[in-house]
Each structure stands twice: as structure tokens, then as C-alpha cells.
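Feature request disguised as a bug: please show the residue count (331) next to cAMP-dependent protein kinase type II regulatory subunit in the output. Example input:
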Amino acid sequence: MKQWRTKLFGKGCLGWRPREPLVNRYASRRKSVFAETYDPEADDDDDGARAIFPKTDEQRARLCDSVKNILLFRSLDKEQMNEVLDAMFEKKVKAKDYIIKQGDDGDNFYVIESGIYKAYVGEDQKHIHTYDNSGSFGELALLYNMPRAATIQAETDGQLWAMDRQTFRRILLKSAFRKRKMYEALLDAVPMLKTLQSYERMNLADALIPKTFAKGERIIKQGDAADGMYFIEEGKVSIRIQQDAGEVEISNLEKGQYFGELALVTHRPRAASAYAVDNVKVAFLQTDCFERLLGKVLDVMLRGMKHYRYVDQSVWKMILEACREENSQVR
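Example output, currently without the count:
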């Protein structure tokens, strides 16, 4: 069985935040007791006992506010997010307390609710980063089965939320693995993406963000600035344009089709609105991922746009010129 690994962090299309840094390991260090290989595909322990720490409404609200901008949790669905909130426990710290120490085995992942914390690395404990009342740390040792890469010390009194290692790996790693497999299957059904290599589809699958829309809900609005494109996972989507007599439907899309790419290619506002015909699940690709991940299929996308009936003449011209440029580059 191949060891499975996923890139969830670092500089990339999903954004970046300071993280527990990678540092050189010491050759003489003993092997971590946590250094086993983790294979999410072989892990069928979904029905085992789950950690639940009761919380008041006020505590849960505070925790929700603390985790809402944590990159790790963006791909979780509502049920998984509730499991994360259930599994996290409060940890109050005093100034000068050590939260984690470089070289130790990883036990917990931490989300900051309040307080200032400093990160140090190396034998001389060089200060490399300060967390100021927000952020998270401790994930690298849990993800990659390595000793702690840095020391984190509280500069002030503070409040942390912690999640134990087993729960972290089961929820986050396995959900990321399932997300990749599910989106790979979805992307395999998109004809435009057939020219991508397997690893390119994996990178694209990792970048997609799940979104849901209720029946009748507007997904994108004509005239708005583009923030990304959408691949339909479930349900149907109605594409409509605004005319003098009101909105007119010009296309109806279903699973395996996509929309929203026109504004990304032309760098113009949305040319049409999109509505959920029924309950819809989509995979969302952010603007800053678009060109990096879909550059190889841009010519296919441009040719497909020539069939769009709702673009004005200036956009038609832009599409045609872009197609000619792509064709000349191929030659």
C-alpha cells in the first residue's frame, strides 16, 4: 500500500499563514514513538469512540470564532466541523508556560483564542515568529510523524483550544484523503480536464473547496467581480442573464459541468448569474488557483466559450484573440 501524503499547508493557492517551521533534525535524536506510517485508505476506524468535551453555548461560540479562519478546517463539511468543535478542549496558560518543546513527540494541535505566543527554533532557541491573539500551531508533528519542529512559549496569559493527535489525524487527514478521492472522480468526468496528468488532477482536487446551495439560491451574480469558478458535484444550475424584461435562462447545467470561468479568463465582471435549481453541491476553485492549475486546458476552455450566447462583442473579440494566441503558441 502506498503511503499517502497530502499538501495542506504552506504557500499556495489556498492562502498562507505563519506555521510551525520546519528545521533540521538532529541525527542523534531517538526515533519518535509516533513515527508510524498513516494510511487513511486502510483506516476504517470511523465508528470508534469519539472525543466529546461538553461546552456551553458561550464557549462554543468563542471556539467557532477562533477556528473560522484556520486553513486546516476549510475543506470540512458541517458534520466534520461539528466533530472538530466537540473534540476540542480548553487549555488556559500562564505567561512563560511552554506549550510545546522542540524535539518532543506531538500530542495536540492548538488553536489560539487569546494571548501572545513566541516560536523558537534551534539549540540557541532563535525567535522566529510571534502569534498575536490568533492562529494555530502544532500540526506539522501530527501530520508528518515528526518530533516538534519548534518551541512555543506563552508571552502572556492566554486561552488555547486543543485537539488530541488521534482525533486530529482521523478527522483532518482522512477527510482530506476522502475529499481528494471524491474530487478526482468528479474531475475525471469533466472532458475539458482529460489532458491533465494524474498528478495535475490531484493538485486540482486538493485545491477545490466544497460549497452547498439551497434550491433557488443565487450562486453568482451578473456584474459582480469574479472570485473563482465552480464544478458541479450534485444538482442542477440555471445560468441566466438580465434583459429589459427581466432575467432569462440561457443554459441549464448538471453534474460534471462547470461555470464561472469566463470572468476569470477575460478579467471582466460576471457575464451572467447562476442559480441552484435544486439543492446543489459544487467544488469551488479560487481565482488565484485558476491559472496555475488550469493553464494547460485554457485553450480548451476558450474554444468552449465561443459557444456562449450571452457575451457581448468586446468579449467575443477577446476570446477569439486569446484562441489565436493559444493556437500560435501550439504551432
